[in-house]
Each structure stands twice: as C-alpha cells, then as structure tokens.
Amino acid sequence: MPPCPLQHTIRRYPRHARRISLQHVPSASYLHNGLVYTRLRLAGADNTNTAVGQSPGSRAYHSSRKSSGWAAVASVATNVVSNVAKRAVNGPSDLPNHPLKLLAKELGTKFLTPSIAKLVSSSTPQLDRVAKYYTQSEGKYVRPRIVLLMSRATSLCPKASPASTDPPRTAASIDHPISPASILSNVSDSSSPARPTSSILTFQPPQETLPGVNPAQRRLAEITETIHTASLLHDDVIDHSEARRGAPSANLQFGNKMAVLGGDFLLARASVALARLRHPEVVELLATVIANLVEGEFMQLKNTALDEANPVWTEDALTYYLEKTYLKTASLISKSCRATAILGDVDAATVEAAYLYGKNLGLAFQLVDDMLDYTRSGTDLGKPAGADLELGLATAPLLFAWKGNPELGALVGRKFSAEGDVNLARELVLKSNGIEQTRALAESYANQAAAAIEAFPDSEAKEGLLQMTRDVLKRKK
Q: Which ranges are annotated Low complexity under compositional bias (predicted)?
C-alpha cells in the first residue's frame, strides 16, 4: 500500500517536518492529519492567488448550490460503469444479464426512483404527496450510487472469519415486518375496521438481482437516499429556500409545517426499512447518521465553538469547521459505506477501509464545494456565487484567510451581516492564500480516500470509486 499523503509530504519537505513525528499523529485523527498536511504543502508551495474575479452575490439562498456540486461526482459513478457495460454488450460476450450491464441500469434512475417512491409511500394522500415530492424529480443519487459501487467493490474482498451466523437477508426477509401487523397498525380500537397503514406496508422487493450486491445492500442504498432527502426537506425550511432541483421547494409548495412533517416521515420510513435489515450494527450506524445531521446543523448556527462577538483566530476554528463538515456531509457517506461492507460479510479491515473512503471523500467534496463559492463566478457556476457568506457561514477559505487577516474576526462574529461585510470578506479571502490551503487540504482527503481502498481487488467498481476521488478535485461547479 502506498504511503499516506502526510508521509509523502514529510519526505518531500523534510526541513519543514523537524518537529513532526508520525508516532505522535493518532492514526484515527484525520482532521489533525489534514491540517498538518496543509501546513507542510504550503511551506514549499507557491502562494500565488489562484482565485478569479467575483461579482457580488445575491442575498437570496440558492438551494441548487449544494446539490448541483454533486452532479459532476454523480456522473462518474454512472459513466465509468456504463461505458464498460457498453463495451461488454457490444463485444463477443453480449449477454442479456451481463453483470456490468445490470450495474449500469441500477446506477441510473430507472430502478432507484420507483424503489424509493415505494419505500416512502403513505396511506395519507397529502403526506404521500409531500414525502414523494423530491423523489419525483430526478436527483443525482450520488450517495446510493456510492453504496452500490462499494457493495460491488467489497464483494471481491476477504470474507469475515468466522463467517457470519446471521440468517441470509433475502429480498423476502428485508420486506417482511418483524412485529405482528396488529401491533404495527395505527388503529387502537380493536372494533374499528382495519386499513393498511404506513407502519405495516410491505415494501416492494427488488425486481431483479444485481451481481455483487445482495438485497440488503440494495435496500441500504435506498435508505441512504431517503435519509438524505429528509435532510433536504428540513434544510430548505431552515434556510428559507425557494427552489430545489428546478422546482419550487417543498416548504414553498406545501408550507413549513408540512415540509417538516414530511421530512420526519421519511426518517421514520427509513428507520422501519433499516430495522427490517435485521442487523443491529447497521441500525446503529444509520441511526447515528440521523443524529449527526442534526448535530451538524446545530453547529452551523455559529461559526466558532464559543460563538464570540469578536473572535480571535485559533486552530480550533478549523477543527470546529471540519467536525461540522463531517457531521453534515461525510457522516452519511462514510457510515453507509461501512454499513454496506458489513452487510457484505467482509473482514474487519475491509469494513474499516470502506468507512475511511467515505469519510475522506465526503470531506474532500465539501472543501472543494466551499472553495468554488469563492473561485468561480456566478456565470461559471450557473447560480449566484458567495452563497455561504450571504448565509453568514465561515467556511475553509475564509478560516484560512482569517489567520493572516485579524480584521475578519469581527465579520465572522456578526456573521457578515453588516453593510459591506460580504464584499470585504470575499476580497480578503481572494488576496490571501486561503484558496490554496483549502485546495491542498481537499487533495489530502481525496488521496486518503483513494489510499483507503488501494488493497481492494481490481474491478470496475473499484475504478469507479477511485475515479470519484480524482474528479472531486477537478470539478468546476
């Protein structure tokens, strides 16, 4: 396995690493590793400002900013496998059920969209409309695609020893309620006529198998997207969003109360489906994700841990930001990758590698996303630039710039709410090396994601995962 980025950097810049001993860097402390890596890179790097000119952003929140960024990453999961599938189908082994052909179909929206729609169905018509509102538009499905690719990539890895004694998770078992239907029913009076309710609906089983992906892993991919969609419903209420995926946001279409309740319902449906996987550790992982999303949203309410009116820069500000970023973005990806490896009954080393891949990919993506908010114009992005500052958020480029520009402290403290704060903050960031430091940190996380799965056997699924780590650094919007 190749050396980690930190080790490579120390060899490249030895004179800047005198006081750094790898023995004192905790192997699990990736936030620390990333920050140290950035400092070393910058010690030998050109600090030329790579930013481009900006135009003042609009104060209206642009909900498409976060989701559109994943578009470039999502295309990798589809294109890498789809291209190979086409070659396989057009070649001498043109089989109707060729594994790559099936995977390419699964990575599209043809099967994910209806499966997720059935997963979130409600017997209450209005709730059903709200719950399915975001599933009706074609999202990028980045997270479930990563889960499916990880499922296939890990299917070739060593199995757990001793082998799992759990009963096999068939399509029938994951769609069957655990408790009696009479207990799960919403009807409390035994004399009342029974009617099917959301609690006891049997989920639609997968219609066709996918080589290298068992039914539980496929269902996990759907659960992952359901949790993500619930977070979109809640986020749009918090951020007063007006649009999502080219249509009016759910809170605008149905009102805040219905949007919040719709998000709650999606989390409940995901929890039911999760329980029916009948694997306590997987349930624990995804339940923790839901808690992490809420914790991250609370952390984002303030820019520093102490939330002072006129804070002074410390490295704790970066640590706080990276912890928040993990909770809001990387937790769902990392724990879903870990869960699908567990459901594939692979060994502990593979499970940990899957988790580290998802964690580092999620952090790298968000760092690039935050950087693009400064380095690309509104025309390039296809939406207003500077959305983070307009929302009062201090992200990585500004936090790095703050170290050399103490006057940013007052702006951070009042969340860029005073007249001229947004323009001044952007100007100071672009004049600093904050963009370069953010890019270096994103690169370190992307490299760590790739290194995490280096030991996986070669496969198209592994190549798709590796390609994601490369493309996340290249995207322009």
A: 188-199
Helix, strand, coil percent content, the chain, rounded in steps of 5: 60, 0, 35
Q: HSE of 18 in the Cβ direction (CA atoms, 13 Å)?
A: 2
Q: Determine the residue type at 110.
A: K
Task: Please say whether the dihedral angle defined by the alpha carbons of residues 451, 452, 458 and 462, taken in this order, is positive or negative.
Answer: negative
From the list 216, 364, 223, the residue with the least C-alpha distance to 289 is 223
What confidence tens digit (pLDDT) does each residue in 394-403 have?
999 999 999 9
The confidence band for 90, taking pLDDT boundaries of 50, 70 and 90, is very low
Q: Are 97 and 85 in contact (CB under 8 A)?
A: no
Average pLDDT in the 40-69 region? 42
- Tokens 């006081």 correspond to what residue? 19
161: tokens are 């020893």
Centroid of chain to Cα 156: 24
Look up residue 373 and give its two tokens: 């908010």
Residue 206: what pLDDT?
54
List the structure tokens of 94: 């043109």
105 phi and psi angles, rounded to 5 deg: -65, -40
Task: Please name the CATH architecture into which domain 5-17+57-160+170-175+209-474 falls.
Answer: Orthogonal Bundle (1.10)
Query: 31 near 103, Cβ under 8 Å?
Result: no
Establish whether the linkage from the previous residue to 114 is cis, with ω within 30° of 0.
no
pLDDT digits (tens, 9 = 90+) for 134-158: 877 656 788 998 999 999 999 999 9
Longest dimension (CA), the chain: 81
What are the two backbone dihedrals, phi and then psi, of residue 140, each rounded to the nearest 5 degrees?
-85, -20
Which tokens hold the place of 91? 């070649």
Contact at 8 Å (CB) between 147 and 336?
A: yes
- CB atoms under 10 Å from CB of 8, counted, come to 16
What is the spatial distance between Cα 378 and Cα 50, in angstroms, rounded to a whole number?
17
Q: DSSP character for 247? A: E
Residue with tokens 């973005």: 329
- Evaluate whether 395 touches 64 at the Cβ level (below 8 Å): no
Phi, psi of 179 (to 5 degrees): -90, 160
How many angstroms separate the CA atoms of 95 and 376, rounded?
45
- The continuous run of DSSP H or E covering 57 comes out as none
Q: Alpha-carbon distance 10 to 8, whole Å? A: 6
